[in-house]
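Renewal narrative, Specific Aim 1. Our central claim is that a sequence can be written position by position from structural information alone. The example that follows is taken directly from our test logs and has not been curated for this report. It begins with the structure tokens describing the chain, in the order in which they were read.
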């Protein structure tokens, strides 16, 4: 049965259709810094080199970017345990998400780009791969993706679902489009009761509150062990600016002028959120008169020399960085960007200082603060000042690191719960 669009959906379809040439140009520009964006571009418009599926076997998991792909990895592992032999169709929107997703594939699995959200591209995607059902990670609700799947008889579940106040307000501005879209989801499994309430305000039927999949992540044991070996040879504590976003490194440099002892009392490690910004951040640090050592230049013995700042320029090594650090300043929270996920830091026993902007992870941030895994500060200056003071207290830091680890341990179990719900939905 064809989906009959209303006026707002017709306008939306016109906009996404007209945006296709702009998307192609954007991909070409991004491919200059990240070659992954030049890979298999026709897939984004529903054209594939893989042979079409002969039967409906694939369980489709959509993980748009790096964070969602990591959460998808946790879920996929649980699905393989609950459904031996399951074949996964994995889709992404960003190059970092696709690169992370490649590590999750097994024989028989398929990986392609998310189809651009036009009716034609989504229909071609659904006809080609014939998924049994789809699992959309966290926030990835696109009108045609949902409505065309519903019309094709492919049930979609929003998994590890979250909805901030800001996102709810934005969606309600297009309520006549977004309410039918959320209402067409076959299942919604929210991270928290607050998320569930906001999703219901968009007409989503929330069947369960399952917790956050990211609590079930296990840090890479080899990376943690490597970091502990390197830590044993250090003479100063390590403080990390983790997953920093544009403008936050400049804030940090400004804070150093207010807390001039910060460079003497701790070794600083900066890990930009987006790898394409590493060169820019390194230039900024050198221009500020600081010496820099990049992770890619380190030997097996770890960082050498007397560089004032270590710069994390590798992908997939956050467990190494968090395990090397005594405490972290949470990127994305010092500029009005909504913060980054702090669960991975806590899982590595790395406590966190959060700035004022954590609206993308509001509940987790509140939980972490309430349970002693994180501390809230008003700005970067206070973060640097308090972090330097905290690492000077060896006994207090040990207790805080234990609290951070306990925080993640107390909230595990979401992957098992979600896998059971997927199994029921398949049945």
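The sequence written for that structure reads:
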């Amino acid at each position: 049965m064809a989906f009959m669009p209303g006026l707002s959906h017709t306008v939306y379809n016109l906009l996404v259709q007209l945006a296709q040439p702009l998307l192609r140009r954007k991909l070409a520009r991004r491919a200059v810094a990240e070659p992954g964006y030049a890979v298999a571009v026709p897939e984004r418009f529903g054209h594939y080199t893989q042979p079409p599926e002969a039967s409906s076997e694939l369980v489709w998991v959509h993980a748009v970017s790096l964070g969602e792909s990591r959460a998808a990895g946790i879920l996929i592992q649980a699905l393989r345990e609950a459904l031996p032999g399951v074949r996964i169709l994995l889709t992404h929107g960003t190059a970092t998400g696709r690169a992370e997703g490649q590590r999750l594939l097994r024989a028989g699995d398929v990986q392609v780009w998310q189809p651009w959200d036009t009716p034609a591209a989504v229909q071609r995607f659904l006809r080609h791969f014939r998924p049994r059902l789809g699992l959309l990670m966290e926030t990835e609700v696109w009108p045609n993706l949902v409505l065309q799947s519903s019309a094709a008889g492919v049930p979609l579940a929003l998994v590890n679902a979250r909805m901030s106040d800001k996102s709810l307000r934005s969606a309600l501005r297009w309520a006549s489009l977004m309410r039918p879209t959320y209402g067409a989801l076959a299942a919604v499994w929210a991270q928290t009761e607050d998320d569930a309430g906001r999703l219901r305000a968009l007409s989503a039927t929330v069947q369960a509150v399952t917790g956050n999949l990211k609590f079930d992540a296990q840090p890479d044991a080899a990376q943690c062990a490597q970091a502990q070996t390197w830590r044993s040879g250090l003479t100063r504590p390590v403080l990390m600016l983790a997953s920093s976003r544009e403008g936050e490194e400049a804030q940090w440099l400004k804070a150093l002028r207010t807390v001039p002892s910060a460079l003497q009392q701790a070794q600083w490690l900066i890990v930009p959120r987006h790898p394409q910004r590493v060169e820019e951040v390194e230039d900024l640090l050198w221009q500020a008169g600081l010496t820099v050592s990049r992770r890619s230049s380190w030997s097996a013995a770890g960082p050498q020399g007397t560089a004032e700042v270590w710069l994390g320029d590798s992908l997939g090594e956050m467990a190494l960085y968090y395990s090397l650090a005594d405490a972290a300043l949470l990127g994305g929270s010092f500029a009005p960007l909504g913060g980054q996920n702090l669960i991975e830091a806590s899982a590595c026993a790395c406590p966190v200082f959060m700035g004022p902007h954590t609206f993308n992870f509001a509940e987790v941030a509140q939980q972490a603060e309430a349970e002693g895994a994180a501390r809230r500060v008003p700005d970067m200056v206070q973060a640097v000042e308090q972090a330097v003071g905290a690492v000077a207290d060896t006994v207090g830091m040990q207790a805080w690191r234990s609290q951070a680890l306990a925080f993640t341990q107390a909230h595990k179990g979401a992957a098992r719960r979600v896998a059971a719900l997927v199994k029921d939905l398949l049945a």
